[in-house]
Predict the structure.
Amino acid sequence: MRLKDFPAEIRDLIIPKVKGEIVYQCLGCNKEFPIRQLLYTCPDCQDLLMIIDKDSHRFKEIPGETWQKIFDYRKMLNIPALKGVFLYYEFIAPLIPLDQIIYLGEGHTSLVPVNDFMRDFVGMEFYFKNDGQNPSASFKDRGMACALSYINYLVKTFGVKDILAICASTGDTSASAALYGSYLHETVKSAVLVPQGKITKVQLSQPLGSGAYVFEIPGVFDDCMKVVENLADNYHVALLNSKNAWRIRGQESYAFEISQDLDYDTDKKVIVVPIGNAGNITAIISGFLRFYDAGIINALPKVIGVQSTHANPVYRYYLERELNKRIFSPVVVKPSVAQAAMIGNPVSMPRVIKLVQEYEKKAGNERFFMVQVTEQEIMDCQLTANRNGHFICTQGGESLAGLVRAFKNKIVHADEIAILDSTAHALKFYTFQEMYFNDSFSPDFEILPKRELQNSPRLIRPKGLDTFPEPGKSLPPKDVKRFIELTSGEIAAILNLQKREVH
C-alpha cells in the first residue's frame, strides 16, 4: 500500500522517525550508561542491564487507539525494514535508521487455533504461536534481528570494526547468531560454543552452514555460558546470549504480535512460555508492560512459565510464596527433550524477578505463575498436538504440558484463552520423536513411550511376487500389473478398506 493511500490522521506517523533517549540502566545500582558501547553487565556492580527509553513519555502523547491504527496500517507497507519485528520500531530500537536494520524474514509467526479434540484435551480454547517459522527456525531470530541491527548501527554510525559475535547455545541461539552474523560477514565474525553431544545434528549443522567457528565444550549449556562470560569480560567480543539487552528488546515483539493478532484485547488471555535462559519470558513480560503503559492493550494477561522437573530453578524459586524469603539457587540439570530449556542457572533471572514484581503491581493481582512438568508429559503432549494438525517442537510440548497442569491446578479457567509458545521448528528435534517411536530413550530421560502414540513405517512386499520395481530397471507389463494389484490389496486389507461397487 502506498503512503498517500493511508488515512490522513496517521499518515505522518506510519514511517517512524529516529528519536528517543536510549540508555543502558543497571538493574542493581540504577546507574545509566550510553549505548555507544557494547555492554552486557554494569561496569560498576556487574549486575544485568536493561535498555531504557528516557523519552518514553512520548508514547502516551499518542492515544492507544491511534497506536493500534499505526501498527495495523504499517503492516501494509512494502518497506523490508518495517516488515519484521521493527514493525513496532518505536518500541524496539528507535535510534537505528531504517537503512541499517537487518531483516531476514523474522517475526509475525502464525497464531494457530487448535481443533475440538485439543480444546477438550485441555479444557479450554488455546492457540499455538509457532516461532519455528522464523528464518533460522526458532524464536531467537527476534532478538538477533535487533542485536545485529544494533551492531550494524555501531559499525555504520561510529565506525566500530573487527567485531566477533559470540554465544553459548543449546542449538537455537547458535543457529540464529551465526545466520544473522553471516549477513554482516564483512564486518562481523561469528563463534559459538555448544555442549558436546547435547544438541541435535540438525542444530549443529546450522552454524556450520553459516560459516561460524563452532566449538564443542564438555559439560552442559551452563558450562559453555561460563566460558563465554569470561571471554566477554576479558576480550573485545559481542556477546549474543540473552545477557545482551538488545536481544531482549527484539524478543518483546512476541508480546506485541500477540496483542495485535488478538485485536489488542488481552483481557482473559493466558501466555504459556517454556523457560530456558529466562530471556524470552523476560522479554514477553516487558513487552506487555510497555504496551499496557502506552494504552495499546486493555489488560495484562496471565503469564505462565513452564519448566521440566529436570531443569527447574525458576519453579523452585517461586515455590516460596513470601517475597522476602525467596532465594534463587541454580540446579544441576538432567537430560531433557526440551533441550533449549535445559539450563540450571538462567542468566536473565534478575530481570525476571524485577519485571514480575512490576507486572503484578500494575495488574493489581497475581498474574505470573510457574508450573513444572515431567519429561513424559512433554513428549506425550508434543506427539498428541502433532497428531491433531500441529507441528510443534519439544518446547511446544512443554508449553502444552504446562497448560494442562495449570488447568488442573485451577491457575487458568475455561473462560480464558491461552497462547502457547512453540519456540522452534519440530524438525530440529526429530531425534526425540524417533527415540520415542523406537523406545530407545536412556533411563535418565524417564520416558516410557505409549503404544498409542508410537508410529513406524511398514514395508509392503507382497508374498507371491518374484520381481519388484527397481531404479533403472523396467518390469514387463504383466509383472507391473500384478505388483500393483497385490500391493494395493495388502494395503487395503491393513486399512480395512471396502471394495467399491461398480454399477
The first helix runs from residue 11 to 14. Residues 457-503 form one domain. The mean pLDDT is 95. The longest strand covers residues 188-195.
